Amino acid sequence: MSQVTKSILVGGVLLASIAVAACQPKVLRGGEGTENPNLDRPALSTKLDKADLDYLVSQNLGPLLESRFWTRDVEGAPGEPIVAIWPIRNATSEHLEDQMLQLLSSIETALVNSGEVRVVARARQEQLAQEIGFQQSATFDPGSARRLGRQLGAQYLVTGKLTGVDERLDKTRRIQYSLFMQVLEIETGIVKFQHESARSKAIQR
User: Fold this and answer.
1) pLDDT digit string (tens) for 30-60?
2) What is d(CA 175, CA 192) in angstroms, rounded to the nearest whole number?
3) pTM across the whole model
4) Strands 172-185 and 156-169, bridge-based pairing
5) String of b and e for 128-147 (b: at least 16 CB within 10 Å)?
6) What's the number of CA atoms in the CB half-sphere (13 Å) around residue 150?
7) Separation between Cα atoms, residue 164 and residue 171, nearest integer Å
8) What is the pLDDT of residues 119-138, one digit of tens each?
């Protein structure tokens, strides 16, 4: 093989390697302390992302922690009241299984970190629900909820639903999400607190 042929072959291999490298997907690491601190900021779809969920939860829990119910019945209680969290119902047309789990976890974390209540672990709540003969679901049943709450020794139950109004105009689609949250006194079924927060997402094609 001549030197010219070898040079051509080596050059071709180098060019092919460069082309392959150029076609490789670029992986980015985002968040505080990285070179892309704002990576999570742009919305990529009309589905709820972590920023949306954090906003919806904070806009409900802020008023809860400042409410008369919280300052009088929770902070003024002789001990830390026990709270159970019923699954939040997804009443939108979107498939949001992972988002609903994140929503529950965010609510649970905020209540635990408040230091004012004791929160029943989700695993224990699901285990007891099976033991006493019913399955927890996203459909809220007051009777079953009260029965479960008493078995757990809980005084209050946090529940709610996520709704979405889906609108389309020409090439624009907008979904207006609302997170409705309630706190019920288990023994009486009385609504002690309720609030609603909203977030809109839109996409233009």
Assistant:
1) 777 787 777 777 777 888 899 999 999 999 9
2) 30
3) 0.77
4) antiparallel
5) ebeeeeeebeeebeeebbbb
6) 9
7) 19
8) 988 878 777 766 665 555 55
